[in-house]
Amino acid sequence: MCDVSVVQGRVEQFHGRQPSADASWVPTYSGAMVSVSLSTSKPTTARAEALVLGIRSEDDHDVFAASLEAVGFTGEKGQVVTFPGGDLTPARVVVAVALPSEPTAEQLRRAAGEGVRAATKASATTVAVALHPADIDEVGAIAEGIELGAYKYDTYKSSGKGKGKKKAKKKDVELKSAVVLSPFARQIAATRAVERAATVARAVNAARDWTNTPPGDLRPPAFAEAIDAHAGETVKVAIWDEKRLAKERCGGILGVGAGSDAPPRLVSLTYDPPDAKGHLALVGKGITFDSGGLSIKPGSSMQTMKLDMAGAAAIAAATVAIAQLELPIKVTAFACIAENMPSGHALRPGDVLTLRNGSTVEILNTDAEGRLVLGDGLALAAEGKPDHIVDVATLTGACVVALGERTAGILGNDDDFRDQVFAASKTTGESMWPLPIVEEMKEKVNSSHVADLRQHNPKPAGGTLFAAAFLREFVGDTSWAHLDIAGPSFNDDSPRGYTPRGGTGIGVRTLVQIATELAG
Ligand code: BES
Ligand code: ZN
Ligand code: ZN
Questions:
Q1: Is any ligand 1 atom within 6 A of the Cβ of residue 463?
Q2: 3-state class of 333 per DSSP?
Q3: pLDDT, tens digit, 9 for 90 and up, residues 205-258
Q4: 6: confidence class by pLDDT, cuts 50, 70, 90
Q5: Which of 92, 171, 249, 297 is catalytic?
Q6: What does DSSP assign to residue 307?
Q7: How far is CA 357 from CA 202, 255, 379, 391, 460, in A?
Q8: Contact partners, residue 269, CB within 8 Å, separation at least 6
Q9: Predicted TM-score of the model (pTM)
Q10: Residue from 307, 341, 392, 395 whose mutation best tests the ligand 1 pocket (most atoms within 8 A of CB)
């Protein structure tokens, strides 16, 4: 009963009131995760409504051969076919997924995601997944693919009980449980891999939920409260309101938030285990809506600008996951949260702001707001003298032009650390690629006639590199990497692999991987 009324309550709130400037309701991740277990059963004996079956070219397809042929399965890359289980298996439906002969962990993750989505489309709520993992890491990758692929954002869909014309589309079927078939099923390491996958996937799905929440329902105070609620007791959380931000000289966050009637926030999260082997600082861009401010965006560019808090979502969710995994590393994270709106109070081109580290910044385009909130966050992070800082931000459209919509840019001031981040991204399957901060950007950033720094380069060439050169001014000597996730933070195409439509949660898994490696 609860579920339905809560969901409908949210729908009513959304349609029936003005978005609130305070945190009158807090979207929390429902945590409706698939429960994943392990079994040594064979595909022909596993009990579930659907069977996801990986078919490799060299397999003899034994009992399934005739059915595969009947539905035209050729094994072509990415092919997914569905047929009735009949008396071949206890499953009502079989989803066959083409696999290469030696799939990578990422290919298994994607196949698992694709497979469970096809299974839920066939109305299955339980699934057995037979993708032939070759080792325990692959068992973990399959579990991750299942939990990420089964994600659905339907908080604002009514349950189909509306009347007459307004009758809403029914919610999709949700996957409840999955069993991964593997000869390693009885090994304790396999169970641990599945548990780790669940913790990490829960973090990714929380970041996705926050990114998908309509921006009127996730204004800065509500987002800060949502992070606090998600963190629970696992990490220490402090929320700075606008008064505290002024006292702490966070002129960038205050300047960007000035145009909105929902005040800005800085949320810091601290996880400090007694056996910490190092200290990682994280900083995230948390613009709950980016209208561009007075340098207002054209309507078409504004449509998806609720995504502009995905960096803050990623660093907050990753910090909680790192703590839940009890990794022996200290993490301090800073979510820099504001709403970028035009109004009589808004920041103007020509204004000068003083950021946390005392640098003055000449504003030339209020749509280049991310670097201003991050300037405060990076300075705060550097004050704690961590071994490394990573910031995550939907920072520049130029990065989408350079690398496409599915790949994040990695920039920084330490080539070795940048390479380590790149390697971590390859392990997790989050697509990222290194970009340089070319030499000439330094003088451009320092070319203001009225302040220490210039916020915006009127020439668009190398926009991602200029933005990173600006951020570099705030980290001092600390080893730092910057992830520009403007492209891959949001998928407005159809779902693919384990990537749903909408918020993707990119960054979370690579941050957890970096922390895992730094923890030794
Ligand atoms: N939030 C945007 C960047 C963005 C663009 C994210 C597309 C996701 C998809 C950022 O604040 C912005 O508006 N950047 C400007 C900077 C410009 C004014 C220098 C841009 O990229 O156009
Ligand atoms: Zn902007
Ligand atoms: Zn922005």
A1: yes
A2: strand
A3: 999 999 999 999 999 999 999 999 999 998 999 999 999 999 999 999 999 999
A4: very low
A5: 297
A6: G
A7: 35, 15, 6, 17, 27
A8: 227, 231, 235, 236, 237, 316, 319, 320, 331, 332, 333, 335
A9: 0.94
A10: 395
